[in-house]
Specification:
By secondary structure, the protein is of the alpha/beta class. The chain has two domains: 156 residues, Rossmann fold (3-Layer(aba) Sandwich), CATH 3.40.50; 216 residues, 3-Layer(aba) Sandwich (Rossmann fold), CATH 3.40.50.300. It has 15 helices and 18 strands. The strands form three sheets. It has a six-stranded mixed β-sheet. Strands 7-10-11-12-9-8 form a six-stranded mixed β-sheet, with no helix packed on it. A six-stranded parallel β-sheet has the order 15-14-16-17-13-18, sandwiched between helices. It is elongated.
């Protein structure tokens, strides 16, 4: 067990309200260091506890954590600091205590400059942090906040401030698993000496050995350079030996998926994942125009209407407007969600263009398809279990890890969940590329035998859209 550092080695962290509203278990994630909570933070938590929003639920969870810590505490113990169990997962009570939790129990001389106007909550937190710097000069006092402007004000006043990093899934979004790796030019010379190949049910398999194999993940794609090079998916990895399966080629019109053919390598690999019956969870990342929704919907229609692998298609997304909110929408749940599902309607038009019968025939086909596609709101997902469904989650980058977990655990037997998104376009406050729920599931499901991921890189919408994405 690591010894608790001396007081001189410890750090003191002052938590802003938005930190504990974002992550209710934040008070358990500072290891051996001490945490200070200003009284104004408790007031703001009390004001934000009502409602059904994610932040209100988090506030109520924080209050339960604090109540549990203070259940048997006396006034003297509170003044000396409550012992905090350590543990990043929030499973408090399982490890010996390390840091302490302090509350503001008396008025301190803030020493805020007269040039700082106003008497808001941010100023109160800044003043408390300045006072702590004078009270405990032997410790380095740090203000932790997800509010960028508060951190700027703190830096101006000489207060050390940091963002909250413990909710990051990865350190850098550039390190996120892409789902495909390019084989070096000498791969077959270094890994093909003991290669085996065989066929099962018209599928071709290879078994290769070598040092590169140890870094591969199950359901990861490996490819040679060039569009026409070798493409395979990793089916198993044992030590330095891997079993590869050749991918289907959906770039050929004879193998079109509901009239859609892959226009590049990444799209072809995405269709391999979407049509694989052994993969229950698929994540597809990529910027606008790369074909995420179109490919997913085409694969869903094929498996729902032709092969009958699923009973129906369910589609949902986070309802965050691009501009000003237009207010409440009338109608049923599905009618309220329709304005948010423009991408679904646009792609349905593409998928019905090739059908014969003129405009009447296309309209009838579109009505038939929409009868098998249901639109649902994320707000009513709690407690549900989806059986034998093809579930599409669009704009998944706007979900928090907690919301993503709540949705993924709704999947019942026979259900396939496809998450689509672009982590460069996040609209939810305090979420970043490294803390998004989409990044979270890509990282956590990496290597699971029934999950797959692919990042689409090349836009295929139009030459105008491609140029706009580069030039604007």
């Amino acid at each position: 067990m690591t010894a608790i550092p001396s007081l001189a080695e410890r750090r003191a962290f002052v938590l802003d309200t938005n930190v504990v509203m974002h992550d209710p278990a934040a008070i358990f994630r500072f290891e051996e260091h001490d945490i200070y909570i200003p009284m104004i933070v408790l007031e703001e938590l009390d004001a934000g506890k009502k409602g059904l929003s994610e932040s209100a639920r988090n506030v109520r969870q924080v209050s339960r954590f604090l109540d549990e810590l203070m259940a048997q505490a006396t006034k003297d113990q509170i003044d000396r600091g409550l012992e905090l169990p350590s543990g990043r997962s929030g499973n408090h009570g399982k490890r010996p205590p390390s840091g302490r939790l302090f509350f503001q129990t008396r008025q301190l001389d803030t020493g805020l400059p007269d040039t700082l106007p106003g008497h808001g909550a941010d100023n109160s937190i800044l003043g408390y942090t300045l006072a702590l710097q004078r009270e405990i000069p032997e410790s380095r006092v740090t203000l932790v906040s997800k509010d960028i402007n508060l951190r700027i004000k703190a830096a101006i006043l000489g207060v050390h401030a940091e963002d909250y990093y413990s909710d990051r899934t990865i350190e850098d979004a550039d390190l996120l698993f892409r789902g495909v790796t390019e084989l070096p030019a000498d791969f077959w010379e270094t890994h093909g000496s003991e290669m085996q190949s065989w066929q099962e049910q018209a599928r071709t398999y290879y078994r290769v050995q070598g040092p590169l194999v140890q870094d591969w993940k199950v359901n990861q794609f490996v490819c040679e350079s060039g569009e026409d090079g070798f493409e395979a998916i990793v089916r198993s990895v044992v030590a330095d030996s891997a079993t590869l399966e050749l991918t289907h080629d959906y770039r050929n019109a004879r193998h079109a998926v509901w009239g859609i053919t892959a226009r590049n390598r990444e799209q072809n690999l995405a269709l391999n994942l979407l049509l694989d019956p052994n993969i229950d969870f698929v994540t597809v990342l990529g910027p606008a125009g790369t074909g995420k929704t179109l490919l997913t919907l085409a694969a869903g229609l094929l498996q729902t209407l032709e092969t009958n692998s699923f009973g129906e298609i369910l589609m949902t997304r986070v309802t965050i407007p691009l501009g000003e909110d237009i207010g409440f929408l009338p109608g049923t749940e599905e009618e309220k969600m329709e304005p948010w599902m423009g991408a679904l309607m646009d792609n349905l038009e593409v998928l019905t263009q090739g059908h014969e019968g003129g405009s009447w025939g296309r309209a009838a086909t579109q009505d038939l398809l929409r009868n098998r596609i249901k639109i649902r709101s994320l707000n009513f997902m709690r407690g549900r279990t989806f059986l034998n469904r093809y579930l599409i989650l669009d704009e998944a980058q706007n979900l928090t890890p907690k919301q993503m977990r709540a949705l993924v655990t709704r999947a019942g037997p026979g259900t396939k969940l496809v998450c689509l998104g672009n982590i460069a376009q996040i609209d939810t406050p305090y979420l970043t590329e490294t803390t998004s729920g989409l990044t979270y599931v890509v990282n956590r499901f990496c290597g699971w035998p029934h999950a797959g991921h692919i990042t689409l890189m090349r836009g295929e919408r139009s030459r105008l859209a491609d140029f706009a994405a580069e030039a604007l």
